[in-house]
Amino acid sequence: MPPPEKIIGIVGKTNVGKSTLFAALTLIPVKIADHPFTTIEPNIGVAYLRKKCVHVELGLQSCNPRSGFCVRGYRFIPVKIIDVAGLIPGASQGRGLGNKFMDDLRQADVLIHVVDASGSTDLEGNRGKPGTYNPVEEAELIKREIDEWFKSVVLRVWSSKISRVLVTAQNPVDVIYQNLTGLSIKRKHVVEAIKLSGLADKNPRTWSQSDIEEFAIKLREVSKPIIIAANKADYPEARDNIKKLIEVFGVENVVPVSGLAELILRKASQSGVVEYLPGDSEFKIIQREISREQLRALELVEKNVLKVYGSTGVQELLKRAVFDKLGMITVYPVEDENKYTDHNGNILPDAYLVEKGTTARELAYMVHTDLGEGFLYAVDAKRKRRIGETHVLEDDDVIKIVSAKSK
Ligand SMILES: Nc1nc2c(ncn2[C@@H]2O[C@H](COP(=O)(O)OP(=O)(O)O)[C@@H](O)[C@H]2O)c(=O)[nH]1
Ligand SMILES: [Mg+2]
């Protein structure tokens, strides 16, 4: 089984630009034959995370990705993304789209919280002039809403189930974990949340309501970390707001973004008007015939976004979500450690996103159960050395598994 896929959820109130960002992320900007559809369901799709491909470091000319693609030495690795139904204040109490929202949200491993940094929409999503509304307030409110939802789920399950089972339980952590799997959390998240809420020395049987609530909040933080997309950064009014967002939430948690600019660039790239790769700091107009409106739109993207922020921010957002918040690394399993190929001669066919701390044997299981079961040793193909089953993999490792059972 390939590595368990991580899911990024796009959340935020109405009209902040979630669907535009989703459209931009799932639009393949380069023409590639076998990627006709990237939208699995209307609100579920595949985005591509850009990372320097290891083929460059290995001195190879190119590679043959089985999923995703590689352009100009950049590997674009697929990640699943959900455009979560719009969140409105009060949703955790079941107001509006509450339940559909919760259902989508549950599946996510990390959240991109889209905020209207231009301040042109109120909390209900009604539009006004840029600079009218306060994005910091919006960001705080939505975060609170998500925390409230987590709290209400945990409290509900606790009183209906967990508290009863805990009375006779050998291992409280397992009980808590098993009864909260609906939130799509891992056991380690429960352990971490208990530690972070300072409850490690207190038997869960004796937790007070506020202990449980504190635990729920920490559980949300570790199991569904949030990165803020300070969107509509193309409006000049957004600049001050972005500074404020950074002051309040920390520079590591806020990314200036223009989903609209990215959509414009990807569409123009797809139709052959410009040369642009997601994550680039510039684009080049390559088509001579171009309408005045299109030229104007592109000029605005350049002046108000690329020149100010260095990119549209969309790739930065994915990177922060996957590498920083989820702590993933990339590893490339191969069958031939000298040619870096699979048995068909495909160079570096797979780029797996795996959690930091993944061992050689765990990787073997991800490639194929047989490889895991019959694991003998692995070869670090870059350093040409043998590694054992407990060897912890590093980012951009290229690994061959040697197994007694062939797959
Ligand atoms: N200026 C600007 N407008 C945007 C941007 N992203 C979205 N919009 C506009 O904001 C409105 C709401 O966008 P939409 O994606 O439907 O928001 P959602 O309700 O959060 O899904 C639309 O008119 C978009 O064109 C952006 O980055 N910059
Ligand atoms: Mg939408």
What does this structure look like?
With 407 residues, the chain is of the alpha/beta class. It has 13 helices and 15 strands. It folds into 3 domains: 7-134 and 226-323, Rossmann fold; 144-216, Helicase, Ruva Protein, domain 3 (Orthogonal Bundle), CATH 1.10.8.470; 332-403, Beta-grasp domain (Ubiquitin-like (UB roll)), CATH 3.10.20.30. It has helices at 18-26, 54-57, 98-106, 135-166, 172-179, 187-196, 209-223, 238-249, 259-270, 292-309, 314-325, 360-367, 369-373; strands at 7-11, 39-41, 44-52, 69-71, 74-83, 110-116, 226-231, 254-256, 274-275, 284-285, 328-334, 352-355, 375-380, 385-387, 397-403. The strands form 3 sheets. Strands 1, 2, 3, 4, 5, 6, 7 and 8 form an 8-stranded mixed beta sheet that branches. The protein has a 5-stranded mixed beta sheet with strand order 12-11-15-13-14. The protein starts with 6 loop residues before the first strand and ends with a strand. The site of guanosine-5'-diphosphate has 16 residues, from α1 and α9.
